[in-house]
Specification:
The protein is of the alpha+beta class. The chain is built from five helices and three strands, in the order ααβααββα. Helix content is 54%, strand content 15%.
């Protein structure tokens, strides 16, 4: 796993909290919903480890729900403590966003218009951000 993968993987916790704040879901569904955030092939084992850890910390809760199309599934939902954690992540990521935005702007200035991303390959199928 590359350093970039490790850094992105660290963001999976707040993203899962966000997804559960939007609506409850079971593990496989959450793994699928992570695709919108660039994890098209999220490792389900890692997602389930994160879910167990978040549940131990009281940020999410789960219960078994019957399924119309198969066996019962464990459905996860965010708790009030999880909502508070999500709000803290919002603040932290907002601060990080400001830092990254400034970095990207200054990089573009350093390299001149049109040159900043000329040799950079897109990550996860998205074009490089330039400000």
């Amino acid at each position: 796993m590359t350093t970039h993968d490790t850094e992105r993987r660290a963001l999976m916790t707040p993203v899962i909290l966000l997804l559960l704040a939007e609506r409850p879901g079971h593990g496989y569904e959450l793994t699928q919903r992570l695709g919108a955030f660039g994890w098209a092939e999220a490792e389900s084992a890692h997602v389930y480890r994160l879910l167990r850890g978040m549940e131990k910390r009281g940020h999410i809760s789960s219960q078994w729900r019957a399924s119309a199309s198969g066996p019962a599934r464990r459905e996860y939902e965010i708790t009030p403590a999880g909502s508070m954690s999500l709000a803290l992540w919002f603040v932290r990521l907002g601060e990080l966003h400001s830092t990254l935005h400034l970095f990207l702007e200054r990089y573009v200035q350093l390299n001149g218009p049109g040159r900043a991303d000329a040799d950079v390959q897109p990550l996860f199928g998205h074009p490089p951000a330039t400000g």
